[in-house]
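My current task is to audit a protein record that another person submitted. My question to you is simply how this chain folds and whether the tokens agree. This is what I was given:
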Amino acid sequence: MIVQRLSEIQHRCGYLPEDELKALSKRIGEPLHRIHEVASFFPHYLLKPGPDAVVRICRDMACHLAGAKTLHAAMEGVASEFGSGQVKVEGVSCLGQCDHAPAACVNEFVYWDKSPRELRGLVERVLAKEGLPRQEAPTDRLDWKIDPYFGGEATYEAVRRFAENPDGDAIIKALEVSTLKGMGGARFPTFRKWSAVKGSPGVIKYAVVNGDESEPGTFKDRELFRRAPHLVVEGIILAGLVTGAKQGWIYIRHEYEEEIDAVREEIKRAVAKGACGRKIFGTDLEFELEVFVSPGGYICGEESALIEAMEDKRAEPRNKPPFLVYSGLYNRPTVMNNVETMSWVPAILLKGPEWYRDMGVNGSTGAWFISVSGDVKRPGVYEIPFGLTIGEMIDDCCQGMKDGLTFKAIAPSGPSGGVLPASIPVSRLPAKFAASLPEGTTEFDVRTLPLDPSKLQSLDNMLGAAIVVLGSNANMVDFALNLVEFYANESCGKCVPCRLGSHKLAEMLQTLKKGNFPRAGLALVDELARAMILTSICGLGMVVPNPITTVLKYFPEEVEPYLA
């Protein structure tokens, strides 16, 4: 795999020297232009040597709210104290540390809760040719319902039971009864995906876990990898055995070094227990599993772009159909699920599908993990039932708003769903949703909204894996600009609507923030948004306009002062 070999070279050399690329080309029998095609696409790879120390400040969502711009400016001041070209400071897309915002990385080491003085100390260590320490995070297991082995070492009992009675149809039926859906945001029924791959013709099939958690505000997969890697390992083994795949990969973003180590160690334990590899638990069943480290880029979270990266190509989304369940990795049927989706499977099979289904409240089914960040007292990852209200999440899980702030808005799907205000006049609600409210209601309190995909859908929004809460001091125009700039920075560039549209929307918002945007231009924003939604190849381009369109809809009074 070219990608993994490029990563090895960069880790060893600090960048990708030309002579190393030529040697790699000869060694693996691939033309040099193929290697450059991959190396030039991913932001993680450097084709030229850079400064001795590079400080990257996360600029997205939670870090933006927590003062990333101030930290960035402070570190630019620090850089100016050293010799020319020794230290470089730049922005970087989400590092997956939103619960400890603002986050930063020095060279390849990710840090959080660091002051400018502490980051300066790390820079000085780099310049003195001293090794950088890894900031350790908690790895203790928590009392999560998702973990059927809490209190003891994982025995891979669900795999053992399948080995004794390899009835894939029974497992697919259990997943159907459980109502388990994709937890990456698409919410596609898990049983349908597994059934499609199982029924697809062909001897060779693959299983992949999508752990490229790069959506701003999202870090739940990080916690599952770190605290309960046995669940995702057992989940993908089961997916492989049920669908007929004999080879699988757990795809993890490269910034998650601790998590990569934890998953690799867990795979070794699974093999030692006989739950993975050849002759699983003494039977003829087999499933080989390894980790694939992402070369970086938000677009890799899109499932077909992820597959392209694994095939040593530029991570550009494929046109669909065909879908991955029929033609995925190397054009073979491929079952791909999110980390959390795979992690729920062992508990569902050991505790029963009804156990999972009945955890929902307020008419919803099932449970899930949410990443909550922003202006709350206790940001973090929480295991909650579907149907819990936004107010209950803020008050009970996060212990309320921080620093005396009041609840102003919420981004219920990271940047992709835009924002909802604390209170919405009935006149601005979709007609069908407004009709469901008690007669005489004039304002809808968003705190009472159940966290359920169908409820958010009825509000013309979406429920994703990340929830960012905004307090009363948030500037909504500035926040919308931050979200749109993220998409402009991360567009893969394959399709014109996203490549040009994301930058055009960012330019419009920059002009708006300066107070130079004409009122008549708002119609152009709406027109461009509709064009991007209708014509972009993948979901990224379709959601780029949501931050600005929702701010225009729900916060017109904040936009008004900026109009020329």
User: Anything to note?
Assistant: The longest strand covers residues 407-415.
